[in-house]
């Protein structure tokens, strides 16, 4: 089964899951068709959830 592939011991999980890149040029970007409501400054990984939720649920000011 799928669960047999995923180790239950954290030290056995390999990769860069959740690792923040050292160089800001490698950080994720947000691409939208209307920049209103998107901050110009970098945002933290925990702030992206609220930003995406707001972009998907707020009515556009058109």
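^ structure tokens above, recovered residues below v
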């Amino acid at each position: 089964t799928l669960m047999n592939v995923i180790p239950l011991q954290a030290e056995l999980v390999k990769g860069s899951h959740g690792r923040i890149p050292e160089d800001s040029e490698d950080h994720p970007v947000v691409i939208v068709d209307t920049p209103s409501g998107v901050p110009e400054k970098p945002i933290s990984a925990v702030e992206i959830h609220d930003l995406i939720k707001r972009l998907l649920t707020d009515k556009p000011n058109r």
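The chain has a mean pLDDT of 78.
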